[in-house]
Specification:
CATH architecture of the largest domain: Alpha-Beta Complex
CATH superfamily of the largest domain: Medium-chain alcohol dehydrogenases, catalytic domain
Order of helices and strands: EEEHEEEEHEHHEHEHEHEHEEHEHE
Largest sheet: 7 strands, mixed
Number of helices: 10
CATH class of the largest domain: Alpha Beta
Length: about 350
């Protein structure tokens, strides 16, 4: 089976790996539209361990080509939406946690991140298909559906972690595709003032369409100081969707007492997160700090698709580049890796697969 991924750290390549095997609860999918994520390039450069001969990719819409003998909801030929997180629903840890992201260990529900080959392949495997696949519904384009599987799911998890309520002043730090989705979710949840932190013009344009009331730039001074000045004290809720260890400190600083900091950003493993005790009111400020990976499974994706069907949001606005043909994957991955100024989110149509 041909796929695009990494020969080793820093070495992207076309690979010929064994074809996936369908278990009794599973499905095999042929991708029709796939998206490139910064997590893919992070894996490529060693951010998630020393993988070898690994096919990358975790965002896909596809067609079912095979189902296991115990699968009841799907059959070959169905067009399906594939969540980036596909938990093992039989794992005991799922029965006792808020999120199913950690079914068999830290982020272990994110199967496509390294425990098996990903979706940049002629065919790929989905475990426990009945619980981890959703049908592509009427009234939702493949492009819109593709943005639910990670970008929208992750961004909206930031909103869930922050527990945004009516009239809250919200800051979203980082308005790449995940941050833009978080921003749109904050608006749907009833936020009042929504302050977006970012500099890229295409992202700023989309942020305004999704409901941003203010845009601030790190190029114009410390972002925490800017937020505190414009809000006369700080934000109620802050979502971290980009940045580094300094950004984490700034998020704590810009959050007012009784507020919440919600992190959905991948920090580098070499970073140390910390802040002066006074920013947390020497431990007495009732500032909650939360972070986590988005839940997985079919039901979550079906709910996100329902928001699109109802006209609440159009996540396809974050798609900035479209490539035609499975063979354009190297070009699309390189674009995401280089992060050109006009980039938000690239997708690839796999028209040449059958």
């Amino acid at each position: 089976m041909r796929g695009y991924g990494m020969r080793s750290i820093g070495s992207p390549a076309w690979l010929e790996n064994p074809a996936p095997v369908c278990g009794p609860l599973d499905a095999i999918i042929r991708p029709t539209v796939i998206a490139i994520c910064s997590s893919d390039t992070h894996i490529l450069h060693g951010g998630f361990g020393d993988h070898k001969d690994l096919i990358l990719g975790h965002e896909a819409i596809g067609v079912v080509t095979e189902v296991g003998s115990l699968v009841t909801r799907f059959r070959p030929g169905d067009s399906v939406v594939v969540p980036c997180s596909t938990p093992n629903w039989l794992a005991p840890a799922i029965q006792s946690t808020f999120s199913n992201a950690h079914d068999e260990g830290l982020m272990a529900s994110f199967k496509f991140i390294g425990s098996k080959d990903g979706v940049f392949a002629e065919r790929f495997h989905v475990n426990q298909a009945d619980a981890n696949l959703a049908l592509l519904p009427a009234g939702v384009t493949p492009e819109q559906a593709l943005m639910t599987v990670d970008m929208m799911s992750t961004g909206y998890h930031g909103v869930e972690l922050a527990e945004i309520g009516f009239g809250d002043t919200v800051v979203v730090i980082g308005i790449g595709p995940v941050g833009l989705m978080a921003l749109s979710g904050a608006a749907i949840r009833g936020a009042g003032r929504i302050i977006a932190v970012g500099t890229r013009k295409p992202c700023i344009e989309v942020a305004k369409k999704y409901g941003a009331t203010d845009i601030i730039s790190y190029k114009e001074g410390d972002i925490a100081d800017q937020v505190i000045a414009m809000t006369k004290g700080g934000a109620d809720k802050v979502i971290i969707a980009g940045g580094n260890q300094e950004t984490f400190t700034q998020a704590v600083k810009m959050t007012r007492e009784m507020g919440t900091i919600a992190n959905i950003n991948f920090f580098d493993h070499s970073e140390t997160l910390g802040f002066p005790a006074m920013l947390w009111g020497v431990g007495m400020a009732n500032k909650d700090i939360r972070g986590g990976f988005c839940p997985g499974g079919a039901r979550r994706i079906e709910k996100l698709l329902a928001l699109i069907q109802a006209g609440r949001v159009d996540p396809s606005l974050i798609i900035s580049h479209k490539f035609r043909g499975f063979n354009t994957l190297p070009e699309a991955v390189e674009l995401m890796d280089s992060k050109t100024p006009d980039l938000i989110k690239p997708i690839v149509y796999c028209d040449d697969l059958d």
